[in-house]
Design brief:
The protein has about 350 residues and is α+β, with helices and mostly antiparallel strands. It folds into two domains: about 15-270, Jelly Rolls (Sandwich), CATH 2.60.120.650; about 275-345, no CATH class. The chain has twelve helices and 16 strands. Strand 1 (about 5) and strand 2 (about 10) form a beta hairpin. The longest helix has 15 residues, at about 295-310. It starts with 5 loop residues before the first strand and ends with a helix. InterPro entries: Cupin_8, JmjC_dom, RmlC-like_jellyroll. This is JmjC domain-containing protein.
Length: about 350
Amino acid sequence: MAEPARIDGIAAPSSPLDGMPRVAARGAPAPADFAALVAAEMPVVIKGVFDDWVALAAGRHSPGRLNAYLAGLDRGTPVPLMEAPARARGRFAYRADMREFTFTKRYAPLRGTLARIEGLIGREDAPTLAIQMLPLAEALPDFLRQNPMSLLPADAGPKLWLGGAVRTQTHNDRDHNLACVIAGRRRFTLFPPDQVANLYIGPLDNPPPLSLVDPENPDFDRFPRFRDALAAARVATLDPGDAIFIPRYWWHHVASLDPYNAMVNYWWGAAATGVESPNNVFLAALLAFRDLPPGERAYWRAMFDTHVFGDPEVSAAHIPEALRGALGAMRPDERAALRRQLTAAFRQ
């Protein structure tokens, strides 16, 4: 068995997840090839896509070098700081009642936060600190010029994640995600979107909804369906210089494997709003369908399967194309008219 990786003399603990099937990996693609990867809607590890980053060179050197680099870009904007007590062992998750989380959030100065995170490296029984979702375009705008990402549109603003050995419970994103590791190692455990029933996701009204299962130590007596989720899972362990593309809605558990870790990620993708937002429609469906009698539920399930998730060239083939309306390929004016109709209806 290989020796566990070490940083600053500290061994990173092994996990049963390390032996699971791996996410496919490839070299840096051209922008057109990357668009094809996104269209395929499958996770992939990408190597060599940001090798020229100043931040990556600093992160590969040492925590102190990367912290000094980031502090040199600081313009005084407070940063979002998450902190979990030592008893949480780095696990950012729900508390027992699922009303609160195991971590607190506040804003703090960047320089002092970086110094505190660095000072906790190697300390036993120390709290876990992490800067999460820091918008670099606002807080450290020079970062974008010195560390460009050619694969993504300019409005896909990067965010910084930096801290200790955090383990973030399984969740998903409504946008595509490109995560680029610049210091330490991170393990991503990914589950396809259709595994939602096997992941035991928590309440939707306490965002972000998280899985209740610790994938590194699952309680199969309490969560028996999680075995099926693990059977569908794939794992990727990223070193500094590696990136991973995660399509929207793919569930992922993220573990920072070393005492100091840093990552920059990008979320992007056209996000519909109002009555065309899939999430809004899903919430409306909970109101409209869940409490209907069984026969009515079966009718609407068949309607959705046929006309929403089915092939319109099959389900509406018997209707002349000019008369298909919402059942066919709507023109822009037809979409706008339907949007106005629904907007008026939801105001009632």
